[in-house]
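Could someone model thiamine diphosphate with this protein?
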Amino acid sequence: MSLRDAKTGKVTKEYSIDELRDAAQLMRGHNLVALCAAGSGHAGGTLSIMDIAAALYLRIAEHDPKNPDWPDRDRILWSAGHKAPALYVSLGIAGFCPLDDIVTLRKLGSPFQGHPHWLKLPGIEVSSGSLGQGLSVAVGMALAARIDGKKHKIFCLMGDGEQQEGEVWEAAMEAGHFHLDNIIAVIDCNRLQIDGWVKDVMQVEPLAAKYAAFGWEVLRIDGHDMSQIVDALELARAVTGRPVVILADTVKGKGVSFMENQPGWHGKAPNREELTAALADLGLAGRIPVDDLLAKAKHWQTEASHALETHAPRYSRNLWWNARDANQIDAMHVDMEPTRKGFGRALAECGGDERIVCIGLDISGSITIADFYSGKPERARRWISMGIAEQSATAAAAGLAREGKLPVLGSYATFSAARNLDQIRVSICYSNLNVLVAGAHAGVSVGADGATHQALEDLFAMLGLPNMTVVVPCDAIETRKATRHLLLEHVGPKYIRFAREATPIVTSESTPFVFGKANVIRLRAENRDFVSAFETRLAEDYSDECEDLSIIACGPMVPEAMRAAWILKQEFGLETRVLNLHTLKPIDVEAIVRAARETGIVITAEEHQIGALAGRVSLVLAANPTLYGVPVIASAIGVKDRFGESGAPWELVKVFELSAEHITESALELVSMKKHAAEHLVTA
Ligand SMILES: Cc1ncc(C[n+]2csc(CCOP(=O)(O)OP(=O)(O)O)c2C)c(N)n1
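Reply:
Sure, complex below.
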């Protein structure tokens, strides 16, 4: 069994039970060092799965680290993609990649992405991170093996909270129906998920009876008893005629006293002191060269930052947010707060309205939907936890709305506005029901979690749905106003999109926010306080000032557009009309047409694949007869038809060319084109 030379078929290394126990502890240690170096990631679930991972990679699975694509290898799928660091240390200890390299976890350019991407690292079988999909992929692989007459096994690792996804049960039914005895599923039953105990969030037990009812062989073991793990996996290999599931009872945070059974350690990394304490708890003090590894991580970061800065456009002064000039004076002072905070504030304020019902999707604290009920026990009966079940929850929201309630549901935008797209389309939009869908943590600025968690396509779908209203506010203050408006004033399907990272506050309580109407933002004077140097008016109250160009932006790209206006004025003497197009649907046609007609240059800026904002603006321009014969040139800032990746939020803003400096670069190009065209006309 186990690690083999694919060419000769010989076993290259055999691990005893004791060696496996020791390896699992060492893997836990390396896992925590990588998390510490990354500053983020999932400690709890990586520690609970580690004994199983050690047994699988080092003893049970037949694979060859030197030949990761060996066609007859066993496949190990990590449906629970957030446990990526446990996957990486498994690959490292088995010899697929250098164990020491894993310390670059979640950093820009690292193959060790926040969630696994099979195209980045040999040994990863599939990309994952959106829960509940792995078992379906396993079914596909198992069917392929059957068609090809192959004998290898497909292992699929899942969490117990993950069992709340309906897709898991579709796959369980399929595997049972097709008698896929080449599938061995392992469920890490640590009884916790993000919002608390699985039994409280959404009960999944009795899992044994459920899987048995779907035609599976069920084994239940202590997931930290190495002999039991090995025996169960070996037994599972021998089962014929039906798929096998191993329910492994585990402890979240296993091995580290202050992490065990603590929900707070689900998605958290230890700091340096906590790491030292954790390694001592694991009995690893002195066994891992922690300082060398952390130095390696630091070096990687330095190189990545250097490469990034070398390629970034730069002008004579550094005008980055809160940059300091040579006299140590804040050149671009702004306060920062995540837009998501405004969402929570509005829910806390408006939640007294008895019609409002908030739906939890197991990410309630960080997207701030929990602010609806926190400290307000009288709202508890209007807080409904649905667990990790975005599709059903969306249709349930439609049911609540049909009965006169005002449901609000939210998750990472990619799960609340993509995973459940057909439910939004048919149950909410086609029925024209009054549901507020919140797309949180949108855009690349989610950062280190990587591509699977960076919604960059949600607006295409939301804008394309009849009856849907779409608002993308620019800062926390505007998010609060927009949420209040959508909740209490607007009746119908509605989508609000906001972000995770702290971004500049560029509006105030007195800044106009009129649903469906754009604001014009103009730089008036250089001021030490960035925001007060600008004046904001409703676009319809604004008179043309013959600016050189317009930048039309939404969401956190509005502050970037304002900073670009500053750079353009200070460095190049150009005047910019910034349009804050917070409402994308219905769109302010008049403001867009005027900006185009009056300035002749339109640049759109969106933290999304190019086209949600750019496409809508282009349509407005192309379809407006008053622009016939008017010369307008345009460009679009946004993500250029590629997936996101891991990195620090502001690094990614640069990598994906979304910064004010990139907007400036595009503006200068268009201004020079406009100038040449004008000169050409004069000479002609
Ligand atoms: C479709 C989807 N919804 C939400 C999330 C966010 N999320 C990441 S981990 C997690 C909790 C998983 O709980 P569980 O399966 O029990 O794993 P464990 O507790 O072992 O980490 C959630 C909700 C996600 N990654 N995918």
